[in-house]
Specification:
The chain is of the alpha/beta class and 216 residues long. It contains 7 helices and 6 strands; from the N terminus they run αββααβαβαββαα. The chain is globular.
Length: 216
């Protein structure tokens, strides 16, 4: 991917690469949009917010090379969706089975906060991934912003959103068109260090979503 539609994100992803923290000094950063990763025939689509400036923006693979990814892949491995519990770098042998991992915004944003226009610019990529899902598949939103991005995308894809509009909460579940949509707190350090999100909590949501995707 070589998209440059969001000038603010282009500047930030490239500036992050030029000024890495000392622990990553000398590494060559990806510093481009980060594509989805996983099984192209997945029935489970996990949607995060955006690559981390020194995680996916560095490694070129979503949720790879940062603490959020460490937490997420440990859970994916525990429920049988990943062959390894660690995600260190692209080409490290990690593979997903039955799951595809993506982000609502494909470039690292300042402060981890994409702007509405930036979400909009990236939405065609998420729509394309949703279109690849077979009926009965499940989507898991990693955080409230990803949950909103999923609802907007499903609406644009022609699926009626229930009224009242579904609200995000950890463990929430709603049926939208042919899909089951689940929500979990984002595996950020802010959530995991404070125990707002624990491994059992995340694994429970993943197992429920996986069961829903296999029962249809």
């Amino acid at each position: 991917m070589a998209c440059r539609r969001c000038p603010r994100l282009v500047r930030w992803r490239e500036e992050s690469a030029r000024r890495p923290p000392r622990r990553f000094s000398g590494e060559t950063y990806w510093a481009r949009p980060v594509s989805a990763f996983g099984d192209p025939e997945a029935r489970l689509l996990l949607v995060g917010l955006a690559p981390a400036a020194h995680g996916g923006n560095r490694t070129g693979r979503v949720f790879t090379g940062d603490r959020s990814g460490d937490f997420l892949f440990a859970a994916l491995h525990a429920v049988g969706l990943a062959n390894r519990a660690e995600s260190v770098r692209a080409g490290d042998g990690l593979a997903l089975s039955g799951a595809l991992l993506t982000a609502a915004c494909r470039c690292a944003p300042p402060g981890n906060k994409p702007l509405p226009r930036e979400f909009e610019n990236c939405r065609p990529f998420l729509l394309r991934e949703i279109a690849l899902l077979s009926p009965g598949s499940a989507l898991v939103a990693l955080g409230a912003l990803a949950f909103r991005a999923i609802l907007v995308s499903l609406s644009e894809a022609g699926h009626a959103i229930p009224r009242p509009r579904p609200r995000f909460a950890h463990g929430c579940h709603v049926r939208i068109g042919p899909f089951a949509v689940f929500g979990t707190y984002h595996p950020s350090q802010q959530n995991t260090f404070t125990k707002r999100l624990t491994q059992p909590m995340l694994r429970s949501v993943l197992r429920r979503a996986l069961a829903a995707s296999l029962s249809s």
